Amino acid sequence: MSTPTAVVPLGTADAEALVTAARRAAEAAGVTVSVTVLDAGGHPLTFRRDDRAVLISGETSTRKAYTALQLNAPTADLADAVRPGGLFHTLPTALDRPLLFIAGGVPVRRDGRLIGAIGVGGGTPEQDHAFAAAAVEALV
Hints:
Elements: H1 12-28, E1 34-39, E2 44-49, H2 56-71, H3 91-94, E3 105-110, E4 113-121, H4 125-138
Helix pairs in contact: 1-4
């Protein structure tokens, strides 16, 4: 029987690197955003809101990260699942949790294991997803 190898958890240095990469991508696109990074337990590691970003972007970035973490999937891939007739149609109202099925949340994995999530809010859903995905790709 093989022993599973330990995976280094998402730490504050990783979280800062994710935020920096997401904000750089947003700045390059001329978009002001909020970025939230959660660890594998759903605890906040880092949060940054551009001082010109809309206030609600702070809440949406956090909820997007939480949703991506809980369902281990990018929120961009989940939007259709909560539409009427979708697999998770009743999920947003069935749970007393801060789920948000709008693109911009992306799980963070290391060696194939879920170690956290990033959420971006402030741009269009497509922009937020692109910024979050770029940050995860930069974290190697």
